[in-house]
Amino acid sequence: MKNIFNPLHLQEILNRIDKLSPDSKSKWGKMDVAQMLAHCSAFQDIAMGQSHPARGWLGIFIGNLVKPMFYNDKPLAQNMSTIPTILIVEEKEFETEKEKLKGKIITFQNNGPEKCTTHPHPFFGKLTPEQWGKGIYKHLDHHLKQFGVGE
Questions:
Q1: Helices (H) and strands (E) in the chain, counts
Q2: Are 88 and 42 in contact (CB under 8 A)?
Q3: What pLDDT, on a 0 to 100 scale, did the predictor assign at position 80?
Q4: Which pTM was predicted?
Q5: Lower Cβ count inside 10 Å, N or C end of the chain?
Q6: Phi/psi at 39 (nearest 5 deg)?
Q7: In the prediction, which pLDDT does 79 show?
Q8: C-alpha span between 126 and 120 (Å, rounded)
Q9: How many of the other CB atoms lie within 10 Å of CB of 4?
Q10: Would you place residue 81 in the very low, low, confident or very high pLDDT band (cuts 50, 70, 90)?
């Protein structure tokens, strides 16, 4: 599984983000491209320990059992539910969100595994830095594919 802490995987993701345009269309889901970028940026905040959404009862009950789906090699399901606090419904400006996300991804990678949050993921619970690195890559990959920007 690719890991955002790997400089080659980081560069691949940044190059794919640069292929997006304000006119990029979603293959599934309700978010437009700017909302998706804002959503991914908000997810970065969780991984960086800057946001701490509460754990829901379902995550507390089954999150640890299904945790590998966050960082294994199997693609995430289309239209899967998201953390309510990072579901973006308001209009966003594409270029602003694109640059904000790229900056957060670079900062996360530069900070390295040792600066990764120790706060539990709101659904999956406690994750190691390696699991966060793989999960961040997988989440970004999922949304880039959603907008037609495969590897």
A1: 5, 0
A2: yes
A3: 85
A4: 0.95
A5: C
A6: -60, -50
A7: 84
A8: 4
A9: 25
A10: confident
